[in-house]
Sequence to fold (165 residues):
Amino acid sequence: MIAVYPGSFDPMTNGHLDLIERAASVFDEVIVAIAPNVGKEPLFTVEERREMLSEVCRGLRNVSVDSFDGLLVSYVQKKNARVIVKGLRAVSDFQYEFEMALTNRRLAPSVETVFLMTSADYSYLSSSLVKEIAALGGSVQGLAPESVEEKLKQRLQEAVRRDTP
Ligand code: PNS
Fold:
C-alpha cells in the first residue's frame, strides 16, 4: 500500500525523520510530499527542502520525496495512494489534524488518514522551534539532521549579512 506523508518540512526535523522511518516500516511505499507554504514566507524553497529530505532519506529504499501544488487529496489520488500519514505529537495537534482529516475525507471519501504517534523524544519538536533556536544562535544538534543544521546556519548567516549595512 502506498502512503503519502505531506507537510511543509521548512525545514525537516528529527521528528519528521522519525515519522518517515515509522511509516516506511508499515507501508510498502511512502511518498514524502512537500506542500508550498500558504500564507507563510518559507525559509527554504521547495527545491531546497526537497534536496534536504532526499539526502536524509537516501538510505530508506521504499521512501521517495516529491512536492505538490493544490489539494492534497488530488495529489494522493494521482499517485494511486489510499493513505495520508500524519504525525501526532501532543493533544494540541489533535483539533487541527482532526479538522484536516475530516475535510480530506469529505473531499475524497476513499482516502484514509492514518495517524502515527511520534517518539516521545520529539513530542515537543517543530520546524518553527528549530528555526527559532537557530535564529537566536542556539544549537539544534539532535533536533534536526546534521545536513539540515548546516543549511540552517548558512541561511541564517546569509540573512545577517544581508541585514548588516
Ligand atoms: O507541515 P504542515 O504545515 O502542518 O502541513 C500542512 C499540510 C501541507 C499537510 C496541509 O496544509 C495541506 O494538506 N495542504 C494542501 C492543501 C489542501 O489540500 N488543503 C485542504 C486540506 S485541509
Notes: The beta strands are 2-7, 29-34, 63-67, 83-88, 112-117. Residues 6-8, 35, 71-72, 100, 103-104 surround 4'-phosphopantetheine (CB under 6 Å).
